[in-house]
Amino acid sequence: MAASTGIRQSELFALKWSDIDLSAGTMNVARSIVHGFVGPRKTESSQKAVPLHHLVCEALVMLKDRKAEGRRRFRRGSGRQDPLRGRR
Description:
Elements: H1 2-5, H2 9-13, E1 20-21, E2 26-28, E3 31-34, E4 37-40, E5 49-51, H3 54-73
Antiparallel strand pairs: 1-2, 2-5, 3-4
């Protein structure tokens, strides 16, 4: 995603799902990580919508679907062990 958009690593790591609009094919880069802390970008003009390549959008849709499937598969009370929490 960083290679196709040109955003910095600190901006990429501060992204949230709510910053990405898959239907419009854009993402809003409003935060970055500086010295281990997430904070707003330096200037308001640097907070703008960045267009996403259609292949990046498709990959993000697949990732989001896979993440949702994992939640359904390992929800509480399913009798299966949750690999992230180590509980049943």
